[in-house]
Amino acid sequence: MKTVIHWFRRDLRVADNTALSAAARRAATVIPVFIFEDAFRTGPDVGAARLAFLLQSVESLRKNLAELGHPLIIRCGPSTEILPALCREVGAQAVFANKRYEPYAQQRDERLVQALLTQGVGFELFKDAVLWEEQDILTQAGNPYTVFTPYAKAWKARPGAPPRPRLGAAKGRPAALRSDALPATPAEVGHPLKQGIPPAGERAAVEQLRRFMAGAVGEYGRTRDFPALAGTSGLSPHLRAGTIGIRTILAELKRAQEGVPPAGAAGGEVFLNELIWREFYLQVLHNFPHVVQGAFRPEYDRLAWSENRGHFQAWCEGRTGYPIVDAAMRCLNATGGMHNRLRMIVAMFLTKDLLLHWQWGERYFMRQLVDGDLAANNGGWQWSAGTGTDAAPYFRIFNPVSQALKFDPDGAFVRRWLPELKDFPDDLVQQPWEHPLLLSRSKYPPRIVLHEEQRAKYLAMFKAVKG
Question: Could you give the CA distance from residue 316 to residue 331 in angstroms, rounded to a whole number?
Answer without folding.
Answer: 11
